[in-house]
Amino acid sequence: MKEETFTNKIIKGIGVSSGIATGSVYLLERGKIPVIKRNIKAEQIEKEVNRFRNAVRDAIGELNAIKQSIPDDEVRRHSFIIDAHILMLQDDFFSRDVVNVIRKDNVNAEWALDMVVSKFMSSFEAIEDLYFRERAQDLKYIYDRLMRILVKGKSPTVETKKKAERGIIVAHDLSPADTIQLNLNKISGFVTDVGGRTSHTSIVARALEIPAVVGAGNISSLVKNNDRIIVDGDEGIVIINPTPEVHKEYISKQLRLKNIKKEFLRIAKLKSETKDGFMVKVGANIELIAEMDIVKKYGAQGIGLYRTEYIYLSRKTLPTEIEHFHIYKKLAENKNLDYVTIRTLDIGGDKFVSHIEMAKEINPAMGLRAIRLCIKETDLFKSQLKGILRASAYGPLKILIPMVSGIEEIKKTKEILKECMEELEHKKIDFNKNIELGIMIEVPSTCMISDILAKEVDFFSIGTNDLIQYTLAIDRINEYVSYLYEPLHPAVLRMIKHVVEAAHANGIEVAMCGEMAGEALYIPVLIGLRLDELSMNPYSVPKAKKIVRGLEHAYCKDLLYELFRQDSHKKSETLLRKEMARLFPDDFIKCIEE
Predict the structure, then answer these.
(1) Helix (H) or strand (E) holding 343
(2) Is there a contact between 287 and 307 (Cβ–Cβ < 8 Å)?
């Protein structure tokens, strides 16, 4: 029993879904199920195999039942992740490995399941990239469901309180299936101890527009049922038992955010054009087909970056040409999108479970990954390219190649693409023969020879996340040097300027799809640099449009000139923040000179 009662205690986490929720705590406590190893006799092996297979069948039944029980059509549209979990359960490689351990080691089903999943989880957790580490959560959710069925006979559902007031769930973790079961008439938000922005639970929360904070440490051990809490999904904070004054302050903030959202949804329908007529396309970065609904709602003109890595993860076999085709066809057929830019595989062979045998690399981020891996594993690359080409007959698809460092990779890619086209022509399969081919500009070498590369491709897309890291020689997730991650560093601005000028001199467009593009503060800088497209998280699109529509291109060019006169990132940011606070006082806090 928790005896300590907090007042106005602030817990910092990660805000993953915008909005503010206030209410009483509904503590969802699920103890960890102990896994006991039992050695079994030969005559018991098939009984354990059948126990496991029955658990898989029951888990699939539970997930299907959850899908069928969702009363709201809008919510049901976001049950795609439950489908992904069902497919993982149905995948032979997963079941086969567990059954093999039962038979080979003469152990019970629970222990075999634990051994197999631990092996897969360790592979995921060895990956440095946070995005890919979080994909392991999908496997963990499946594991938890199966283990509870094996031990207890069923996996518990999310029960909500029978109270008039809407509550806030606090839990160690929530699965996407848990999240999608939330009765939004009774639950106004949630907080979890663990999780990250790109976890599928977070994606579902954003899709359902439930205020949420994850990664809040040990908050589930600090609160009691019926404690009052505030969840701020924008700032990423939770306040336990706020005083009446603080509660009143957040109720006012909640009202302001609702009004801002209404205004943003109005702006979402407008053109992204400056006061003096400079047009910049505003696109969205997504990874799942179901996110297209959000893209439309928040006014993106197209998809500036469709990440394809999830197609490859958590599976033993590589996706086939037909599997690629069916996914990309859905994108191509969406009539609300002017264009869809599909980025080819951007991970190394160490990041997915397949037949590809990879040597261990000391620094995989700079090793055999992305286009380097695709050129080495040509069959893998051709399956994806042919899937994109086939889908291009149904809509405006573009191909984007990541991690290019020189012209040889582009020429080799074009050779492989030509082979794919010839193979499809031989089979009399339709495709867009003039499909655009672009490259990511995320390596300093491509910046320096962008004038040469621009003659070989149809467009550039600048990936600032990697470009800034590689240019400044810092790891932005390393707490000791993350302060050096400076988008306004003079070297970074000059590199972007050089790329844009080289592209325009050769008649091709330049997009930016890194985080810098979605940060409203930098928009006047990017307009001054004459970027043709900015691509970002769909939820950032309306604010980006608001900023674009409140600026003049001539002013942005003058501001850029002033920034180029500064000799440090700090001076540039101070100047920029002062200007943005002057132009958009409701959106930016003015910098105070020290």
Answers:
(1) strand 340-343
(2) yes
- Give the model's confidence band at 362: pLDDT under 50 very low, under 70 low, under 90 confident, else very high: very low
Specify whether 413 is located in the same domain as 348: yes
Q: Cβ of 137: how many Cβ atoms within 10 Å? A: 22
> What is the pairing mode between strands 212-214 and 14-17?
antiparallel
**What is the spatial distance between Cα 161 and Cα 23, in angstroms, rounded to a whole number?**
12
Q: Is 513 one of the catalytic residues?
A: yes
Q: Where are the beta strands (DSSP E) in 97-194?
A: 167-171, 187-192
In a domain, 581, yes or no: no
Q: 507: how many CB neighbours lie within 10 A of its CB?
A: 9
To the query of whether residue 200 is one of the catalytic residues in this protein, the response is yes
Q: Looking at the domain assignment, is residue 424 inside a domain?
A: yes
Which is the catalytic residue, given 200, 324, 553, 569? 200
Strand partners, 306: 286, 342
CA dihedral 492, 493, 497, 499 (to 10 degrees): 20
One-letter amino acid for residue 441 of the chain: I
Q: Is the pLDDT of residue 300 over 50?
A: yes
Non-local (6+) Cβ contacts of 298 within 8 A are 264, 265, 268, 284, 538, 539, 541, 542
| DSSP secondary structure code for residue 462 in this structure | E
- Give the CATH number for residue 22: 3.50.30.10
Give residue-wise pLDDT tens across range 496-527: 999 999 999 999 999 999 889 988 999 999 99
Catalytic entry in 374, 420, 447, 513: 513
| Partner residues linked to 27 by β-bridges | 170
Domain boundary among 236, 263, 290: 263
Number of domains in the chain: 3
Q: Is the CB of residue 578 less than 8 Å from the CB of residue 559?
A: no
